[in-house]
Amino acid sequence: MKRRKVLQNLSALGSLAAFPEFSSGISRQPAVAPVRKIATEEAFTIPEIADAYREWINKEGVNLDRLVLKQIYDTPDARLAASNTDVSNRDRAALGMLPKLLDLDAIRLSDMEAGGVSMHILSLTMPGVQVFEPRQASALARLANDRLAEAIRKQPARYAGLACFAPHDPQVAAKEMERGIQSLGLNGFIVNSHTHNLYLDDPSFSPVLEAAEALNAPLYIHPRAVSDGMAKPFQDYRMEGAAWGYGIETSTHILRLIFGGVLDRFPKLQIVIGHMGEGLPFWLWRLDFMGSPGARAGRKNQLKPSEYFKRNIFITTSGVEDPVALRFCIDKLGADRIMWAIDYPYQPTAPAVAFIETAPLSDVEREMIAFRNAERIFRISR
Amino acid sequence: MKRRKVLQNLSALGSLAAFPEFSSGISRQPAVAPVRKIATEEAFTIPEIADAYREWINKEGVNLDRLVLKQIYDTPDARLAASNTDVSNRDRAALGMLPKLLDLDAIRLSDMEAGGVSMHILSLTMPGVQVFEPRQASALARLANDRLAEAIRKQPARYAGLACFAPHDPQVAAKEMERGIQSLGLNGFIVNSHTHNLYLDDPSFSPVLEAAEALNAPLYIHPRAVSDGMAKPFQDYRMEGAAWGYGIETSTHILRLIFGGVLDRFPKLQIVIGHMGEGLPFWLWRLDFMGSPGARAGRKNQLKPSEYFKRNIFITTSGVEDPVALRFCIDKLGADRIMWAIDYPYQPTAPAVAFIETAPLSDVEREMIAFRNAERIFRISR
Fold it and tell me: What ipTM does the predicted assembly reach?
């Protein structure tokens, strides 16, 4: 991506002059050379899983994920053409996503090239294999991981990847996680929040957390639509998904791990969350006030919430290209715990690139967030 | 409060040197004279409502509010003395709150004096009268408003207040709101999020919103425990209340008003939310990206979420004494939309005072947030 194009994209970010707090010791201008960029929350799928979703979304009683899955996997092009007035811009955009999700070759590499993106850390897109029954889920996870490893073998400089697994088939999942790291050479794990309405604090998932800790590889907890037990206020106005529900589903999941003592039981577990920390960094003062040891109400945690954040949690910038929020998170968590992401193909690449190229950061901070942290946390060697 | 004491309290806020972004044009030191302070989310109750809660919390099927109400209203002192090991610090503190909630005289005025707080804007504490059946709720609302007006008449320089009402008795509520402003001289309204699991976007509540808009008085939407339809993931680890559920309940409520088109139907409605905007300011970039007109998915809003914030919503600092979060909110919303609050008696006065006295703000910003905005928004004359 040419520097001129990056600067043109600046208009999409609003005027930096509106942020007077970024006033000294921080470069206002992009670095002279574009920074190396590793995008850390980049989605893909495989045809077999796309087919399985098409079947799943038409079943009875499936959860709110069906709304967005229907848009992506189940709307024939003909219906789009016939419904000019009923389809919003975003709904329309959803229809173009499937070819990009399925592609690990020409389309994706060309989009990366156009954006000057060095690497995608790939992960099976939400809601992963978690919506299927355990045996089917484990089989599809294995298939997806094999395809992912194959794509990485072909493009080792451009792709890294996270292994998926079926949390509700925990013994098989733990073995698949081991295979993902030790045989396939993958860089961590991906899970899409709840599994059949259970969160990872449920004791049945302990083998999965044991495996992640033992393999010393990070677990990316990605959003999906809110679980059934909190669905009602989110089921109107399309609030179940990216506009609101995803963040609340995932932040609530993380707090169940913290307040449920999971991070006391697995003190070395490394968790990654997207979307600028799913709102949690903003709440840390109050979480500490209300949730510190000694202030607890029926909780027995060893540390303050903010201390778990600094020990166990990394965040990415996926879907939140807001320099003010980024600065806030650096102040709260440190630049060494933040990684850049695009959320390809759901978010466009160019503004995400312009964001990391032009956000008011020191050169050291920009390099950490753009690629150095990702190299360290996901063990990516050049 | 003496300047020396304020400065001693500074240690509770952590080192300001940790916030390098507050570097120029902003005074690091407190103003020479303490600023006038109007606290805007200060709780009280009356004995009749305390009695009614004691009855309500022992009924079948009541919602998660019962957990905190039991601590405040239903634990005999003897049980506390007998259960040293089982009662956490915060549970213990809850037991001391009832006398302060019931007091509009000596205890409160002395706490205000000690903290150098000029005025409390009083509101009936959560969950208000909304948990009772409509006729009882309307009667208790009327009684609470009469007592509130009486307390203000005795201490017009120290107290202002918000009228409560029974949203589920909407015609009576609208009349009580009119009486609250026009006869009792109160300064706005208080509602505690959902009413029997319905939010204010439910068409049954239209008379209440019409009244608030017509009377040109702000409606404070205060938290309560999450509604039944989202209770399940919040019912463990005491996540239903101040540690997490309150914020999610209230922020989700606000987004139902935005995405449900309520602020298009009532464009002059003025809403106040506490706890540094219940996390919403942090999400505004993504809310705008996902929720703008044209990007909508089944929503028909006229404005971007951030535009509703700047037109219809004020925030207070209750329970979030975090100078980094405050600066973030000033950048996002403007200092003219932020008011200081203590959340008395749930939060201690001294640290809230130290926060507003010492947060890195310009003198103009500090005065706006400490009292000028409250005077303007709640129409308080000296």
Answer: 0.90
